[in-house]
Structure formats: structure tokens, C-alpha cells
Design a protein that fits this description.
The complex is a heterodimer. By secondary structure, chain A is of the alpha+beta class. Chain A folds into three domains: 291 residues, no CATH class; 78 residues, no CATH class; 60 residues, Arc Repressor Mutant, subunit A, CATH 1.10.10.410. Helices cover 37% and strands 22% of the residues of chain A. In chain A, the strands form four sheets. In chain A, strands 1, 2, 6, 7, 10, 11, 12, 13, 14 and 15 form a ten-stranded mixed β-sheet that branches. In chain A, strands 5-4-16 form a three-stranded antiparallel β-sheet, with no helix packed on it. In chain A, strands 3-17 form a two-stranded antiparallel ribbon. The two termini of chain A are 46 Å apart. Chain B contains 14 helices and eleven strands. Chain B has an eleven-stranded mixed β-sheet, with helices on both faces. In chain B, helix 5 packs parallel to helix 6 and helix 9 crosses helix 10. The chains are: A alpha+beta, B alpha/beta. At the A-B interface, loops of A face helix 9 of B.
Chain lengths: 441, 472
């Protein structure tokens, strides 16, 4: 087969906001690990006559997320009711946003420079949780409403993502951003961030049926699920040639043990949620000055911090590892900006330092420059010993040396690695590389 | 005092208590006695408060200790059964909520209790407030105290009948479209619909969320004003309540004439199908207001039939969503317990919100609603109020709703526009046709409660249409 296969991937990301109270009532929003139904009230239980009162902080947090994702903020906005039945949905409808989300039309840049368009960022309420269990030998489904009404932000991308790698990078960046602006702890294991890729393929202009992957709670699983879908859909299309239509959209789950996706629901037709404006909550007017105020409250975002670090001479791979670690960032800022006289003299190689810190060779709670000195001078003072090691490796690998001399310079990395291994990680890679190049001339 | 306790208004009861003519226990036991005698005939109350006497004793103690700090201390009150009340079952006259005991108190009853009022019991209504007859109650209809072969109107039929038969000095109702004013008219008593957003809906079983307005049904406009001043005002549990300050409405009833007041008589509300006698009563009312100094002008407004269309679509849509929570999992009873009217409304509302129909129905209805609101805004630039009949005719016979799924809409055609625009309006007795009371509506702009109550009070003070059928 020589078909050209292009995956088309969109991502819906749900993020629970870490506000003090829930979206429409005064109950605590922190529900993780609490005894069932201990954090409820008439509003989030959907009792007769109860009314929602919106949480202003949650709205501001949503707008902040939108701004961080380069979105436009709607000056006019309102909540809608999304009507559907499910036992964990206390009112028989979810208060969400449909026609006028708080934010729309933003984007996120991948490191490659590729722009992933963001369709919308809206606010809604989380549902309760069902527990299927056995009580007194009877199979029962219990409902815990602690999570009911917790503010949930939905970030919807356009289907601009072309691979599981891109999806993973996008997700990691979203995660980094929402955490950095301090609106959520976004703990995936606690379900505070839930991932829903929609995947189909363009095979030579034929589009395979849409698949929505539901409630994935790890970036790796999301990538694995997408890859599984790509191969599954490719195989399915080869077999049945079925193309996307209004009636064959599927919802699938991901089984992380079997590493497969499995069918949850075949949609016969589009769900009719009978959206209409929530009459219990007046519409919002969000003035440009409020938007600017919230924009002013945004901290420096991860990509900007990383760019800063890079401009200080720190390699991007290291910058990505340390940008969100405040203690390390403090040290780097001091050292990299050379504004600490005591450290100036030591001529610290900033990347070497970061590498040592990241690999936990340096204990950042005690004196850094002396540790650095001790660790780095080993390689240099034993230059003689290092030459012995280099010679040893060259002798052990005549074929590789030959390849190098034929012009396959990429094998140098292998030789450097071998010397490093022999030195038990003590040697400095650049020094080793220099020595090798000398010998191989 | 020559009058018996049940003949006294709230203001008179408070005065009597202050003058120590009787105690709260006297008042409450007098009413409980009347309830025992007449409720079995009229089916006004669905449940009564077993602790009423004990609470009356407490109120007497409190008066001894603190005097009359609380504005409604010791006043018994009847509450429509769609207001959540702790310790009293709240069913909205539906079997779905049979024996349902609320976990929290509605804001309106909370404020009444805090003001010292004592709930006598919960009054019958159309199930879920769907209707204008109280005939759709799943606990049987309330009978009109003026003629027990007739309907009391609805949906607050029990509350209106309670006032007419003097089974409570004052009652609470709720109006989505006419549900306070229309039963008040059919029972010959005073009903007051505050503006939408003036009184909290928290703890009121929702009917149509965008028009539901709680309000009083009373003997007099003065009592209605007093009750409104207690229950109105912003509520942190209802985002649609207005932050505007609440005025002491009962203390602002000062007019001795209507000089400088411009009142519109809406020609289109004198329907061709209406009986001449009703039209005459409304024209008489206009003349009377004119004699008090008001300037009366006939105007034309959008045919009220458009309001009915708008209201029917919006209300059914909201109902279909609001009743979704009664899914059979909680509250003890399944969906099979819904009556026919609720089922009809759920089906119609589900249809009007469905993909492909939303634009044709819901969206169009919202657009027309904006037109109606705009028309009223213009009207109130020139006029202080408009008047018309509350209902096209007097109370209809029991069974009149049979096979008439639009019965309520026809009975409420003249109050419908004001409801969908969220206006405030008083309904006061303005005469009799065939021995049955007829109601006049005096309607004003949003949040003009003080002005409308003042005009209505003067009308009531200078006319003699407040009568009560004999239940002794």
C-alpha cells in the first residue's frame, strides 16, 4: 500500500479549576478523597427550587486561561443549559456554554512553530460520580455528588494536530500553562485534567469515521490511544472502505492495560442537547478594561520563561526541565545573570551546572559553587587519565573508527558515549569530544 | 372590637395585638378552627402546620419580651405549595413530590418566618403551577368560595380561595403568567405581582424560570404592600434578583388623588369576545380613576395573542428542562406520577428546543418577547400605568378545563404580556358579573411597585368592591 495517510486530530481538554467554592454554590470545590456526599447543598444536589449563582473567580480564571491561549474574550457572554439524562447529572441538565463562550479563537504554538488553533475556552460545571458496587450481595450503582458543580473549563482545539507527538506536546503545553497561571493544580491522576482526542484519518482524500476518545488521564495514554486509533482506522478502512458520515461517529475508551481502544457508543445521530440560554443566570458583559486587568494579572508563561532561559545561554532541553522549578530557577537567575560576585570567579558553565542539578549530582540546598567545582574539576585535572580512556575506546572499536574516517561523522557521539561510560560519568562530554577529534584527525 | 378575628386584615390584626384585644394564640386557634370547618368543603389547604399553635405561643412570649420589632409577628399566613418549607410537605400539587419534605427553606418563607409570621398551611394549586384553574392539582380542585360549582382560577387557586373564604388573613402565591392576579380576580380578592427579579425565586419549585414572580394575595392593597416589603429584595441565592433597594411600600400609600398620573386604557384588552358587562366594569374603573384626577387615554398595544404564542413556547421550553430533575431516581416517585398537563408541557417544550425547531419556535419567541418589552418601554415613557381586565370573564365552572389544553392561556390572555415583560401589576376587585367578582389590573413598569401599589390602594379605598362570601 502506498496510500498517503494523514491523521486529523482535535483535542478537548477539561480542566477542573482549583477555586475555593463550586461553580454555582458555596460548597468546597476540593472533592478529591472526601467521603461521598459530604460536600453538597440544595444547589449542587439539584433539589427542587434551588438556583445557581455563578462563581466570579471561576469566570475570571476561565478568561485568564483564554488570554494565555491567545483567545478573544467575548464582550457578551452567557450560560446555556445542555439537557440530557444521566444519573450523575442532578438537574437533568448541565450548565455550560454554547453560543457565547467566554473565550474563542486563540492558538498555541508548538516548538516547531506550528500553530494549533483553539476554537473556544468555555466554563461549565462538573457532574457527580457513579460508583458501581455490591452492597449486601446486590449489584448497585451509587451516586456521589461531591464533584457535582465543580467548575470545569473546556479547551477545544481545531483539528490541526497531525500526530500523537504533536498531541502530546500540545497537551503538555496546555498543562504547563494552566498550572503556571495558578488557576488549577491540574493533577491528572486526580482527574483534574481530562483529555479527549477526536481522531480520524485522511487517506488519499477519503475520510475515516470520527472517533472521540473519552476521559483519558495521562499524556502517554493519549498518545498511545491516538497511535492505536491511527493503525486501527487504517486497517478498518482497508477492510471496509467506510467513510465518515453523520451517523457513524464513535465514542471509544482507552484500556491502558491492553493498550487498545474499545467501543463505548456508536452514535446513530447527533445527540440533541436542546441547548437554550440558562434563564436562572443573567448574561454577562465583560468590558475591555476587565479583560486588560486580567491580562495584567497573568504571570510570564512557560514558553516565554523558556525563551528567556535560552537567551541566557541555557540549552532548550534543560530550560524545559527547570522552568517550573522555582528553587532551581532562582539559582539559575543568579548565576546566569552573573550578578553574584562569589560565583563570577568560578566561571561556571551554566549548562553543565543545570545538567548536574537536573541529574541530582548537586544538592541545591547547600553551597553550589564548591560542589560544582569538585564535580567538574575531576575531568580536567585527570586529563591524562582521560586520554588513556579515549585511547582504550578507540582501540576497542576499530570498525567505528574506520566508519568515521570514511566520513560517517555521526558515530562520534557513540564514541563519546563509550568514553563517558568508561569514566563512570565523571568526564566532561565536551572535553572528551575534543580529545577524540584530536585523535581521529 | 366588633369584628371577628377572621374579618380583620393583617394591619388590623397587628393593631389588635398591640392593643391587646387578642393574643396570637387567639388568632391562630380561630383560624385553625375555621380550617377544620371549611377546608373539607373547599379543599384550599393540602397540609396544615401542626406546630402552628406552639409557634403562636412562642410569638406571644416574644411579644411580651421584645414587643413588635418584627413586622409580621404573630400573623398567620397561607403559603402556596410550591414554596419549600422545612417541616411541611411541599408537593407543588403533584404526586411526583407526594410526601416530599424539603431540606431547606425558600427565601420568601424564610423572610416571612424571620418577620414573625406563622405558616398556617400549604395551599392547593395547579400541579407544578401548570394552569389557571387549580383543576390540574393531583389532589383535587379547590372550589371557588363564591360558588362551589366554579373554579377558583390558578395556579395560586388555593391561596386566593383562602383569602376569599377568610381561611387566612394573607397568602403567598406565585405568578408565571397570571397565576396571582387571575385567581385573585376570580375569588374577588387583591393579588399583587411584583416585577420579575424583585422577589427571590430561591426555593420556589421552578415553573418558567424567566417569568416566575412570587407575591402576595391579600384582603387589601395595604396588606399586599406590607407583605411585599418583607419578601422583596436581593437574595444571594438568586442571581436574577435586583440589587435595587426595597421601599417600605405600605408606608408609601399616601395618595389622596391621582393628579399628574397618566393612565392608559388598553383598547386591545377589551376583547371582542369579552362580555359587555366586564367591559363596562373596566370603563367604569377608568372613569373612577379619572374622577380621582388621573388623565386617562385609550391606547393600542400589540394584540395579546402574540404574547400567548411567545409565552407558550418559552414557558413550555423552560418547563421541559426544569422538570428533568424529577427523573424517578430521587424524591420517591417515578415519572409515571406526572399528570397529563405536565406531560403535555414537557413534550411540547422538548419539541420547541429540538434541533431544527429551536430557530422556528424558541428563538422566534425570544425575538417577539423583545418586541413586546420594547413596546412597554415606550408605553411607560408616556404613562404611569395601564389598566384592563385581569381575565376576560368571571370564574368558570368546574370541569371547564376538560379537553382545553390552552384553557390557561385563554384565561390569562390579558395578563400574559405584562408577565413576559417582567412588569409589576396589582389586581383588585372592580365589580361583579352574575354575582361573581371581576378583577381590574393596574400595571406599571418594572420596579414601579411603590407607584402601582399607591394607585391601586387609592382605587380600593375609594371604591366598595371588596366583599367576602359568608363562611361562618
Amino acid at each position: 500500500m502506498t496510500n498517503k495517510i494523514s491523521p486529523i486530530i482535535g483535542l478537548e481538554v477539561h480542566v477542573e479549576l482549583t477555586t475555593k467554592s463550586k461553580m454555582f454554590c458555596g460548597c468546597p470545590a476540593d472533592h478529591f478523597g472526601k467521603d461521598p456526599n459530604t460536600q453538597t447543598c440544595p444547589v449542587c444536589l439539584g433539589l427542587p427550587g434551588a438556583l445557581p449563582v455563578p462563581n466570579q473567580k471561576a469566570i475570571e480564571d476561565t478568561i485568564k486561561i483564554g488570554l494565555a491561549l491567545n483567545c478573544q474574550v467575548n464582550e457578551q457572554s452567557h450560560f446555556d443549559r445542555k439537557n440530557y439524562f444521566y444519573p450523575d447529572l442532578s438537574k437533568g441538565y448541565q450548565i455550560s456554554q454554547y453560543t457565547e463562550p467566554f473565550c474563542h479563537d486563540g492558538f498555541l504554538l508548538l516548538d516547531s512553530g506550528k500553530k494549533i488553533r483553539i476554537e473556544r475556552v468555555h466554563l461549565e460545571e462538573d457532574t457527580g460520580k457513579l460508583q458501581h458496587t455490591t452492597l449486601n450481595d446486590e449489584r448497585v450503582s451509587l451516586i456521589d455528588f461531591n464533584r457535582s458543580g465543580v467548575p470545569l473549563v473546556e479547551i477545544v482545539s481545531q483539528p490541526d494536530i497531525a500526530s500523537s507527538e504533536e498531541a502530546k506536546e500540545y497537551l503538555k503545553k496546555i498543562h504547563a500553562i494552566v498550572k503556571e497561571i495558578g488557576v488549577t493544580t491540574a493533577d491528572l491522576e486526580k482527574g483534574q485534567m481530562r483529555l479527549e482526542p477526536t481522531v480520524n484519518l485522511n487517506i488519499d482524500g477519503h475520510f475515516t469515521p470520527l472517533v472521540e476518545l473519552k476521559n483519558i488521564n495521562s499524556f502517554n495514554f493519549a498518545a498511545l490511544a491516538i497511535d492505536y486509533e491511527i493503525s486501527r482506522q487504517t486497517a478498518a478502512f482497508e477492510k471496509d472502505g467506510l467513510e465518515k458520515s453523520k451517523s457513524n461517529k464513535q465514542t471509544r475508551g482507552y484500556d491502558s492495560v491492553k493498550k487498545i481502544t474499545f467501543l463505548q457508543r456508536q452514535k446513530e445521530e447527533a445527540n440533541d442537547y436542546r441547548y437554550f440560554p440558562e434563564p436562572d443566570i443573567p448574561p454577562f458583559r465583560i468590558s475591555p478594561s476587565v479583560v486588560e486587568k486580567l491580562r495584567g494579572q497573568l504571570p510570564q508563561l512557560p514558553d516565554a520563561i523558556i525563551t528567556d532561559l535560552v537567551s541566557l545561554g541555557i540549552e532548550q532541553r534543560f530550560a524545559k526541565l527547570v522552568y517550573n522549578k522555582p528553587k532551581i530557577m532562582n539559582i539559575l537567575n543568579v548565576i546566569a545573570r552573573r550578578n553574584d560576585v562569589a560565583i563570577q570567579d568560578t566561571k561556571i558553565d551554566i549548562n553543565k551546572l543545570v545538567s548536574l542539578i537536573v541529574n541530582k549530582k548537586i544538592d541545591i540546598s547547600s553551597d553550589i559553587s564548591s560542589q560544582y567545582k569538585k564535580l567538574t574539576t575531576v575531568g580536567e585535572t585527570n586529563a591524562g587519565k582521560l586520554t588513556v580512556l579515549v585511547d582504550e575506546i578507540l582501540t576497542q572499536n576499530p570498525k567505528v573508527v574506520e566508519e568515521y574516517k570514511k566520513g560517517k561523522t555521526a558515530v562520534l557521539a557513540f564514541l563519546v558515549g563509550a568514553v563517558m561510560k568508561l569514566s563512570q560519568g565523571q568526564a566532561d562530554a565536551q572535553t572528551v569530544s575534543g580529545l577524540l577529534l584530536e585523535k581521529l584527525k | 372590637m366588633n369584628k371577628q378575628i377572621h374579618e380583620l386584615s393583617v394591619i388590623e390584626l397587628l393593631r389588635g395585638l398591640e392593643d391587646k384585644h387578642f393574643s396570637v394564640v387567639d388568632i391562630v386557634s380561630h383560624y385553625l378552627d375555621r380550617l377544620n370547618r371549611f377546608n373539607p368543603i373547599l379543599n384550599v389547604y393540602l397540609s396544615t402546620n401542626e406546630n402552628a399553635l406552639a409557634q403562636a405561643k412562642q410569638a406571644d412570649e416574644e411579644i411580651k419580651k421584645n414587643g413588635f420589632i418584627k413586622p409580621l409577628i404573630g400573623i398567620p399566613i397561607a403559603v402556596k405549595d410550591n414554596f419549600l418549607t422545612c417541616g411541611l410537605p411541599t408537593t407543588a400539587s403533584s404526586l411526583v413530590l407526594e410526601e416530599y419534605y424539603p431540606q431547606y427553606e425558600s427565601t420568601v418563607t424564610r423572610r416571612l418566618l424571620d418577620a414573625g409570621a406563622i405558616i398556617l398551611g400549604k395551599t392547593n394549586m395547579d400541579a407544578w403551577a401548570h394552569g389557571s384553574s387549580t383543576e390540574s392539582s393531583q389532589y383535587g380542585p379547590t372550589l371557588n368560595p363564591w360558588d362551589i360549582g366554579r373554579l377558583p382560577g390558578g395556579s395560586s387557586g388555593g391561596s386566593a380561595a383562602a383569602i376569599a373564604a377568610r381561611l387566612a388573613p394573607v397568602a403567598i402565591g406565585s405568578e408565571t403568567s397570571g397565576s396571582i392576579r387571575q385567581p385573585a380576580a376570580w375569588c374577588g380578592v387583591t393579588g399583587f405581582k411584583p416585577s420579575y427579579g424583585r422577589v427571590s425565586r430561591y426555593g420556589v419549585i421552578a415553573m418558567a424560570s424567566s417569568t416566575d414572580s412570587p407575591g402576595p394575595i391579600a384582603r387589601t392593597v395595604e396588606d399586599a404592600a406590607l407583605i411585599t416589603s418583607v419578601i422583596a429584595g436581593i437574595d444571594k441565592y438568586d442571581a436574577t434578583t435586583s440589587p435595587r433597594e426595597v421601599e417600605p411600600y405600605h408606608q408609601l400609600l399616601k395618595r389622596k388623588d391621582l393628579k399628574g398620573i397618566k393612565i392608559a386604557l388598553v383598547k386591545d384588552y377589551l376583547l371582542p369576545s369579552m362580555r359587555t358587562e366586564v367591559k363596562t366594569l373596566i370603563q367604569n374603573a377608568a372613569k373612577h380613576l379619572e374622577s380621582l384626577g388621573a388623565k386617562i387615554e385609550e391606547i393600542s398595544l400589540l394584540d395579546p395573542k402574540y404574547s400567548i404564542g411567545v409565552y407558550t413556547v418559552i414557558q413550555r421550553s423552560e418547563v421541559s428542562s426544569n422538570l428533568a430533575r424529577y427523573d424517578g431516581i430521587r424524591f420517591g416517585h417515578g415519572r409515571e406520577s406526572f399528570g397529563d398537563e405536565a406531560k403535555r408541557r414537557i413534550m411540547l417544550g422538548t419539541y420547541t428546543l429540538s434541533t431544527g425547531y429551536y430557530d422556528a419556535y424558541y428563538k422566534k419567541a425570544v425575538a417577539v418577547r423583545s418586541k413586546i418589552i420594547e413596546e412597554f418601554e415606550n408605553t411607560f415613557k408616556q404613562f404611569d400605568a395601564y389598566i384592563g381586565a385581569v381575565s376576560p370573564g368571571p370564574a368558570q365552572k368546574l370541569g371547564a378545563t376538560q379537553n382545553e389544553s390552552m384553557f390557561g392561556e385563554m384565561a390569562d390572555v390579558l395578563v400574559n404580556p405584562s408577565s413576559i415583560a417582567g412588569l409589576t401589576s396589582a389586581g383588585v376587585p372592580c365589580g361583579f358579573v352574575d354575582g361573581l367578582p371581576i378583577g381590574l389590573q393596574i400595571t406599571g413598569n418594572q420596579f414601579e411597585e411603590a407607584k402601582i401599589l399607591d394607585i391601586a390602594n387609592l382605587y380600593q379605598q375609594t371604591t366598595d368592591f371588596v366583599k367576602f362570601p359568608k363562611y361562618d
